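hey so u asked for the seq, here:
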Amino acid sequence: MTPPVQPGPTGHTWRNWSGLEEAVPRHVETPRSVEDVVDVVRRTREAGRTVKMTGTGHSFTAIAAPEHTLLRPDGLTGVLTVDREAMTVTARAGTPLKDLNLALERLGLSLHNMGDIAEQTLAGATSTGTHGTGGVAAGLAAQLAGLELVTGTGEVVRASAQENPDVLEVARVGLGALGILTSLTFHVEPLFVVEAHEEPMTWDRGLASYDEMVAASHHVDLYWFPHTDRLMVKQNVRTDLDPGEQQPPSRLAAWWEDELVSNSVFGGLCRVGSRVPPLVPRINRVAGRALSERRYSDLAHRVFVSPRRVRFREMEYAVPREVGLDVLRECRRVIDASDWRIAFPVEVRTAPADDVPLSTAHGRDTLYLAFHVPQDTDHTAYFGGLEPILREAGGRPHWGKVHTRTAADLAPAYDRFDDFLALRDRLDPDRVFANDHLRRVLGA
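ran it, structure tokens below
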């Protein structure tokens, strides 16, 4: 993975993972303690400048782009405390999710749910509303029991159900606008085993049985290959197996499916499609027919997370669950009627309603529709052509993925939007953590 900060002509250039966004900070620091963060924030405020703690750059937007001072997360990593009575684990906010998963595994513990990428820092993943599919909580932020942040005035605020609960309620998805997160406390559960069932289906069968599959399985993930009638459906079911009794795919099978087919071969096909767009429908048909069924069981985080070595650009919208499949059908109708050539599958996931004010699943059961193109492909026509459909359906864009929305039209989508802005005024009155992207989506 390319580091988000690289040498540049004026010192350093920050780039996100997809290469869509970059910035040239004037100053770069790596804090190693909460006190270091406080010192930087106070100096930044006194100078009338801004500061951003960046993660690993996995947001497709400029939400973390630094305008003046960039703080690297590398010095704020590792597990701090484990409370087995409360079933919580506290880790420093710069810890990559993949490292937390491994640490929890060694402790015999697990998060309830997560997305399919684990490269993000804990702060970045929670702050942008990163989520998985299904379960009793899909989003990482909905699994938070507490947090610690440094405000725009340099105050250290700890928030939990007992201490500053109003801050915890709102700041779980904070967009990096409320403060610099220094530690996060997650609700955890005993390490568990998931049985995975991956199965190709036709479009008609997949959509007709989707509600039934969601009701029968804990976590369902569906992929549609544009320009075809082919789907791949992943159903993950929690089992009663004890850790150690799972039956993961063999090393060869895992390499074949997850590395060779899903990354090397898929990446090669994407490059061919980018160079010769008319071939994309044929490539997708071949890829769809090549899919095979498989079953295996493994520890939860090994099933949920997959290696993603093919870089891409992504737009994802959360639409109300009850209209979600109709919205998907309308998106397909528009794609089929267009001259776009879409090499990446469309991903479909679900989430139960949660109570996080700026969560895309706040207050409603949700269906997520995610659209991708290869990193070197212009996304503007495709994403721009579908976004009005998603918006008209009451869709909320993922905070870390490509969209064109502004504060004026985002505010009506969230009934707690004003509460978020009020907390922002309280915690960062001088907008020490602002950047152009946050000014667009939250207002100045």
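Residues 107 and 351 are 27 Å apart (CA to CA). The longest helix spans residues 251-275.
lmk if thats what u needed
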